[in-house]
Every structure is written in C-alpha cells, then in structure tokens.
From TrEMBL:
Protein name: Tigger transposable element-derived protein 3
Superkingdom of the organism of origin: Eukaryota
InterPro entries in UniProt: CenT-Element_Derived, Homeodomain-like_sf, HTH_CenpB_DNA-bd_dom, HTH_Psq
Single Gene Ontology MF annotation: DNA binding
Keywords of this entry: DNA-binding, Nucleus
Keyword Cytoplasm belongs to the record: no
Keyword DNA-binding: yes
Source organism of the structure: Geodia barretti
GO CC aspect terms: nucleus
Domain HTH CENPB-type: 59-124
Length: 124
C-alpha cells in the first residue's frame, strides 16, 4: 500500500487573512477550504485575527517571538517615545536596564538587538 507524502504549506499572515475573509464571505465547508487553499485554517481563525491586530508584517510566514516579551515590549515603547523626542537610541543599554527593573534573567546581545530590530521593522 503506497502512502502519499503530505506537503507542508506555509502561508503568510496576509494569505491566512484572505482565507478567513473567504470563510466569512462564502461559508465553504472545511473540505472545500482545504482543497482550494491546501491548508486547514478554519480551526485557528480567532488566533489569526488576533495576530493580525498586533502584527504589522503580512508577508511574514513565521511568528518571530522574543526570549522575553516584557523586555521586548518595554524597549519598543521606549524606542517609539525616544524617536518622537529625537533622543539617541541606546537600545542595548536600555534593554538591559528594563531587564533589571523587571527582574528578568536577560542580557541584550548584538544578535538579540539585530533580531529585535527585524521583529519590529526598525532600520537604524
């Protein structure tokens, strides 16, 4: 008995949102959706909509998470405020400061900072 390999289909957030809108507009069955888009999205509709609210990158296929979301969020909030005031960006130092204030076992490195900039679409 021959088994067929199942191929993984990675969709961008924008493609997932398109499927959700088709689901809401046309109300197709799960089988029709799977056949048409080669993906089982119906089960995760709420998670997709929630991710779309906070994510500004519709072309990204993978969700990039930080090691410590609290430090990440605090640094981004500070960065937006500092940029509005034309303050110099001392990101690594501020990330380490927020980690100590939040009592987190965290050390900002050059690699972490590079990925943080990519996650937030920052080019300095």
């Amino acid at each position: 008995m021959a088994t067929s390999k199942r191929h993984r289909t990675d969709l961008t957030l924008g493609q997932k949102l398109e499927i959700v809108s088709v689901m809401e507009r046309e109300r197709p069955s799960q089988a029709e959706l799977t056949k048409r888009f080669k993906s089982k999205i119906a089960k995760s509709k709420d998670a997709i909509l929630k991710e779309a609210e906070k994510n500004k990158f519709a072309t990204r296929k993978q969700k990039r998470a930080s090691k410590d979301d609290d430090v990440d969020a605090a640094l981004y909030t500070w960065f937006v405020d500092a940029k509005a005031r034309d303050a110099p960006a001392i990101l690594e130092e501020k990330a380490n400061h927020f980690a100590s204030v939040l009592e987190k076992d965290f050390k900002a490195t050059n690699g972490w900072l590079c990925r943080w900039k990519t996650r937030h679409g920052i080019k300095i």
